[in-house]
Specification:
The chain is of the alpha/beta class. It has 13 helices and 10 strands. The chain is 39% helix and 16% strand.
Length: 328
Amino acid sequence: MWRYAEVLPLLNKKNIITLGEGWTPLLELNRLTTQLDLQNLLIKDESQNPTGSFKARGLSMAISKAKELGLRDCIVPTAGNAGGAMAAYCARAGMNATVVMPRHTPKAFQGECQYFGATLILVDGLINDCAKKVAELNKEGNYFDLSTMKEPYRLEGKKTLGYEIAEQLNWKLPDVILYPTGGGTGLIGMWKAFNEMIEAGWIANKLPRFIAVQSENCQPVVQAFNSKNASNYESTIANGLAVPFPFAHRLIQRVLHETDGWAIAVSESEIIQGVKELAATEGMLVSPEGGALLPALKKLLAVGEIRKDEQILLLNTGSGYKYLENLN
């Protein structure tokens, strides 16, 4: 990821805190391409990052900047992966980490935070309830609060996804990108990166259509896209999609509308089936968030929202291994 240091907001490279994040593979899904009668179906596999998810990008950047700013204590509300990533990078930097996580989060996520030396606080409810706990703990301002989109640095790390996708595709972007959307940092980050590259003259002035994919159990982005009142905030097997009130909701909608994109929700059973199908067909055990993309793709193909002759990119955000206790 730090190959893009010149477009990241770190003033001195000696402050980089890295575990080797970034430059994850962009793979052709050949068997699914044939089965679905497509021309080009790709997946960006972020499960191969440190701590098993794309959260490593944002937290590598944010903890590096925290070090540069002389900060020592970090706190984050998390659905799972961000907490593990923050704990790991804080350990690497010799900083203190406090992670606030829903009590129902799979044990693998809880355990990794503890192994990395973080203080783990479990809360009944979803990530919005964790955010309330963080605000309570940080009322004196003693922590660097790494809540999604409430500080500027995680977004900068996530935007390296966009630079990588462009570089790996020889500076020609895909027609459509399906992205599992909770807090939306990766979605906004890619959009930001593509616009930066257009301004720099690196790529053509044509953005991919962004498709936000959510769970039917928690779909505020889909409901807002369809101009409906938000409702139905339940937990989902895809922890990262259980974000009832995304802080950056206006920016998420802006990205979808500016790129002629779409928002779609799929059921819990479809998510699990998507994970199983990607594993059995392509040998990839993706996260439930990533698994949601396959049923969403099939639905969008069926209604003509995505054409079969387009180059389609799925963005798998993490590894399925941490979720195995719940994937049955």
